[in-house]
Specification:
mainly alpha; two-stranded antiparallel sheet; two-stranded antiparallel ribbon; 10 helices
């Protein structure tokens, strides 16, 4: 397994990964998230999922409008956060009331933002460095619309030799699970999510829909939605399996290597569908403000 190289199959796939790894958002051949540091705007490569999410937040009108909607809200003072001190000691119990540009994707614009963390230290968010870290300007996550762990488990469940052939075919087609079409910057702080009219990324311990357990590192109900929604991962993988099976049959009795051709556009269409659901979740009554992705999925 080679998750650190953008895939989870044979080392032979390293060459495909490196061949398509480029600067900027386009290109790339990754099946798992393995590079996420965007500190000081470094690492602007196809594999970097936080960088890709930042680029998507600038270019996608729907995401941009949601993240910048704080500017139209009436806030009477500092934002009291809902974070856990033990989970995020570098965050703060209160973050300053945002001035114009303070929470913008390319902000803060008017000047650095200072705040005192749970651990008692003073943190400064420099001009232009929002979202380069997960607590700037507020606690946020770079969310994979098609969850990387879910895609991995679905492909592995196919078993040999289909697992390896699907990976090779998708990487040959330059599918990149970290491409901006599959990424979205999301608030993790419940109060911030309220302000932005967005679901928050993870459930954590905040009360949501009944029956959803506290969850710090995953969103299992949302993962299931990504699999079972019409033309979702389950459907896509069934189609891929048929193509791979046929490619294996075509070379049976020969020494040729099966070379199935898979369409990455099916996965990219699923990403767009999931994004549309998230952006419209509150308007369609799927969640109350600030609820998690799992709550949204449970209501779908």
């Amino acid at each position: 397994m080679a998750d650190g190289d953008g895939h989870f199959g044979p080392d032979a796939l390293d060459k495909l990964h490196e061949k398509h790894r480029k600067d900027g958002t386009e290109g790339g051949a990754c099946l798992t998230g393995h590079q996420g540091s965007f500190s000081k705007h470094t690492g602007k490569v196809t594999c970097n999922y936080r960088y890709q999410a930042w680029e998507q937040a600038q270019s996608h009108k729907g995401i941009n409008a949601k993240l910048h909607s704080y500017a139209s809200k009436t806030l009477r003072g500092p934002v009291k956060t809902s974070a856990w001190k033990k989970v995020k000691p570098d965050y703060a119990s209160r973050i300053p009331k945002p001035k114009p540009g303070d929470w913008d994707v390319t902000g803060p614009l008017s000047g650095p933002i200072k705040r005192t963390t749970f651990s008692g230290t003073t943190v400064v968010v420099p001009v232009g460095m929002n979202f380069t870290q997960e607590t700037w300007p507020y606690w946020n996550n770079a969310h994979h619309l098609i969850p990387k762990g879910t895609l991995k488990s679905k492909i592995i469940d196919e078993g040999a030799p289909i697992t390896d052939l699907v990976q090779k075919a998708l990487m040959t087609a330059q599918y990149n699970i970290n491409h901006k079409v599959n990424m979205m910057l999301m608030p993790q702080d419940k109060r911030v999510a309220d302000i932005l009219d967005l679901p928050r990324h993870l459930q954590l311990r905040d009360k949501d829909a009944g029956g959803i357990a506290a969850m710090c590192g995953n969103h299992p109900v949302y993962n299931l939605l990504a699999c079972e929604v019409r033309l979702g991962l389950d459907s896509i993988l069934r189609g891929y399996r048929k193509i791979v099976d046929q490619a294996i049959d075509d070379v049976k009795g020969t020494h040729k290597i099966p070379k199935p051709q898979l369409d990455k556009k099916k996965l990219e269409r699923l990403s767009r569908k999931l994004l549309k659901m998230i952006l419209g979740a509150e308007a369609e009554g799927l969640v109350s403000v600030g609820q998690s992705l799992d709550a949204m999925a449970a209501a779908t």
